[in-house]
Amino acid sequence: MIDFVTLCDYIGTFAFAISGIRLASAKQFDWFGAYVVGFVTAVGGGTIRDVMLNSTPFWMEQPSYLFVSGLALLFVIIFRRYVIRLNNTIFIFDAIGLGLFVVVGIEKTLNFGFPMWVAICMGTITGSAGGMMRDIFINEEPLVFRKDIYALACVFGGVVYWICLRFGLAVTLTQLFCAIGVILMRVVAVKYHISVPVLKGES
Amino acid sequence: MIDFVTLCDYIGTFAFAISGIRLASAKQFDWFGAYVVGFVTAVGGGTIRDVMLNSTPFWMEQPSYLFVSGLALLFVIIFRRYVIRLNNTIFIFDAIGLGLFVVVGIEKTLNFGFPMWVAICMGTITGSAGGMMRDIFINEEPLVFRKDIYALACVFGGVVYWICLRFGLAVTLTQLFCAIGVILMRVVAVKYHISVPVLKGES
Amino acid sequence: MIDFVTLCDYIGTFAFAISGIRLASAKQFDWFGAYVVGFVTAVGGGTIRDVMLNSTPFWMEQPSYLFVSGLALLFVIIFRRYVIRLNNTIFIFDAIGLGLFVVVGIEKTLNFGFPMWVAICMGTITGSAGGMMRDIFINEEPLVFRKDIYALACVFGGVVYWICLRFGLAVTLTQLFCAIGVILMRVVAVKYHISVPVLKGES
User: Interface pTM (ipTM) of the complex?
Assistant: First the structure.
């Protein structure tokens, strides 16, 4: 049986892939293109993190991420008409995935011997760079920088992690609080339509 | 004298660079910008592969790729008016290059000790990520995901490689069949206007 | 006290970040998104260089680049109305940064044992890839390939470096002449509206 963390990892991958596949389908991508966009949305952030850490991209070590992205494609094809009704469920899956991805990114970076501020950067990249790559692929301005609080929720989770570490909490609790911090901030931001203020340009 | 494989490599680089330079010129890029787009189209896929394999990008080991891309720029500048008439020739060059790039990508990945499914991914990235980067640079939605069969032809070639390997064929034959698989699928797809079906979005 | 080179490095980072933040604000990015675009504009080129050299991205070794980008965001927020009047000063800062970034890129690449032509490529990437990434993020066609002489000024500086090295000049002088070459070419190109000719497309 797979453990709880692996389950959350698959759930997050599935939700991230679905967001990529849906946006690709809105742009008339073919099935294969939509699959690639879904896959990149799911693993892109972790891949950039791993390249910067000089480590082999995590998805090259086991084929499960390719499979889960394939399941996401099947899901969108089969349940196309009902997928909108599932928006709330997908949103929760996405938030859980985001929380976990941030924890994984911080963890791995600390294990490579980097200081906490680099780990927070890498946690944020792990969580939000995939969505950024998705928007670049489908030729839209990155949503993560313009709607609700997304990347900033990752930073917030990283700060929670840092504070917990400072107060000497156990690693498991620290990780849990970090993930909960990310998830809560996402849920609250979306529910109450809280956004980072837009930077006013020069007139 | 250069051997047959090197010749195919240069032909492919030349054809890939030309596709980048032509699309850049349609977007009013300057000469230098068009050169860069051409170069990135030609070497971008292999560069992403090498970065993921934790290897030095192949074009940094000898300047010939910079020269061949320069020749492609000269070619487009001088034969601008006649280049359209050469579309069929350029298409064949492009297909030959694609076939070779996929083989090179698979080969290198297997040499680094990765399993076959990673090699197929890397072969596909070697063949199609350059075209994807080209479309991102010129700010268009990636053509490789929307027209004819391109990235999928790379996957097909990878599967051919895998089957040949399973049946114990000699390496040279395996590589040849893989390249022929990619080229054939491209030619057939373009000649008979076969595409991967578009993923229908939610209405 | 910080030395002269470090000061130029911060000035360049500041100016590059400002160009990213201003363009992001014109696209209605939120504060955090504008900060990220500014940061990527400033460190993106050096990051791509370091990834290709198989080295840890330079900004992960000390947090000053994150701080300087933060200062640039504050600067744009506070002096929004007056920032246009400072265009000339920012341009000079940007040119100084460009000159330094090219020198740093060449230096590092040579130290890794690569030949001069790779160093010129890496110097050019260090100087201009950040601006390219900025334009991809804000979903515009890369300005560096279409306006004034930008990437080509980096190549020019690299050639100056190469010639000085050939004539046996001291390293410090070589670096100084390279930086001056980049800065002069930028200033002259902008002042006299010199551009690389546009590549005419097929009609």
Answer: 0.92
